[in-house]
Amino acid sequence: MAIYAIWNNKGGVGKSYLTFQIASEYARQNPHKKILVVDLCPQANSSSMLLGGMERGEERLSRIHVQQPRRTISGYIEERIRSPYVSPNTGSSYITQVSWHNNSVPSNVYLVVGDEQLETQSSRVSSATSPGPQDAWRIVHLWIRDLITDIQASWNNETNCVFIDCNPSFSIYTELALTAAERLVIPFSADGSSKRAVKAVLALVYGIQRHTGDAQSEFFLNTDRYRMSLPTIYMYVGNRLTQMNSSSASAFRTVVNEIGDEIWNVWRTTPQSFCIHPGGASTPVSQRAFREMFQYEVNDANTASVVSGALGIPIASLTAGQKNVAGKNITVNQSQLDRQVPNIRDLVQSIE
Ligand SMILES: Nc1ncnc2c1ncn2[C@@H]1O[C@H](COP(=O)(O)OP(=O)(O)OP(=O)(O)O)[C@@H](O)[C@H]1O
Ligand SMILES: [Mg+2]
Fold first, then answer.
1. What is the chain's Cα-based Rg?
2. CA nearest to 197, candidates 41, 8, 12
3. Which of 181, 204, 276, 319 is the most buried (most CB within 10 A)?
4. How many domains, the chain?
5. Is 13 in the pocket of ligand 1 (CB under 6 A)?
6. Which domain holds residue 222?
7. Is 303 in the pocket of ligand 1 (CB under 6 A)?
């Protein structure tokens, strides 16, 4: 039973795509566990994919958004804005069983639907952190943890696993996600600015100063002040490895390794910020062993990823052939599936 946040301070690196694929695949591999996805991004991309993709998913999302009461993340946040310091214990009424809307997703996947209202709520969430009781900051930052605890309790604490899709910006709701999470998955793409983005993650969450004298984030300082725990780094994932030719693959690997070096340096000073896995594994003593434990790569799935996301069909259930996406015929090649399916399967097997 673990709570994972999928976060990078950079946009478009695959947080939502990987949340969708990982949660669906984890559910397929663990049919006796309950899987919860909490969509803490106002764009609600992972919700849209889970609910059926570009057309059906979007339509269902709109329907859920106009229902009263609003059974979305914003519905819960609204309740907490009204009751900031006392948990209403109502979290379990905010879940949607995904297969009810999209039977391509295993029936053990549940979702707290994302909602654009998060943007307009964020200033009110921030206001609740002060003034108020002396530890208002702490209590407000635990809202999402409270939500998850309510849901787990309603499942009689049956074995479960939680994935939180985050917004790229380090907004108040991203802070709430990181407080709720026990483990952190950092996806990144292999382009020039990725290294800077990963450094930003390390600075904002773990207080790793980039330049001497840099101010540390209020999130890091307050987490320490209130003796709250930070998520531990579980894996960093180079996403969208292009296999067009060997030079693009090696350029990709160079960037992944450079970022790996950055994270390795953090490991050397603060190994307690990492989650050794699988359970019982010994602490890596060389950089190579460190990479084997924490560094992952996901291929660019090309057309298969477009069709998978657009139709809300997890990659393991997608078949090759012609698919209709928004009135256009798109062909999914078996060769793409042959690469992507085991890639996602193996990645998920490393998630406990
Ligand atoms: N492995 C992959 N292969 C092919 N396409 C991918 C892969 N991962 C992500 N994508 C595509 O890249 C685009 C950006 O991905 P996604 O929306 O998941 O990023 P994000 O980090 O959630 O973005 P944001 O910061 O805006 O929330 C999407 O169109 C997605 O389908
Ligand atoms: Mg996203």
1. 20
2. 8
3. 181
4. 1
5. yes
6. 2-349
7. no
52 within 8 A of 102, measured Cβ to Cβ: yes
CB 71 within 8 A of CB 93: yes
The β-bridge partners of 324 are 329
Could you give the angle at the alpha carbon of 230 between the alpha carbons of 166 and 297, nearest 5°? 55
User: What secondary structure does DSSP assign to 250-301, as a single string?
Assistant: HHHHHHHHHHHHHHHHHHHH-GGGB---STTPPPP-SHHHHHHHHEEEEE--
Q: What is the pLDDT of residue 212?
A: 86
Residue 189 DSSP SS3 = strand
pLDDT digits over 222-243, tens only?
999 999 999 999 999 999 988 7
CA of 200 from ligand 1 middle (Å) equals 20
DSSP 3-state of 78: helix
Sequence length of the chain is: 352
Question: Reduced to 3 states, what is the DSSP secondary structure of residue 213?
Answer: coil
In this prediction the pTM is: 0.97
CA proximity to 210, closest of 262, 268, 271, 273: 262
CATH number of the domain where residue 185 is located: 3.40.50.300
Indicate whether residue 39 lines ligand 1 (CB < 6 A): no
Q: In a 3-state reduction of DSSP, which class is residue 347?
A: helix
What percentage of residues in the chain have a pLDDT greater than 90?
Answer: 90
CB atoms inside a 10 Å sphere around CB 61: 22
Residues 160 and 155: their CA atoms lie apart, in Å, by 9
- Sequence-distant (≥ 6) Cβ neighbours of residue 142 within 8 angstroms: 179, 180
Per residue in 51-82, pLDDT (tens digit) is 999 999 999 999 999 999 999 999 999 999 99
Element (H, E) at 184: strand 183-189
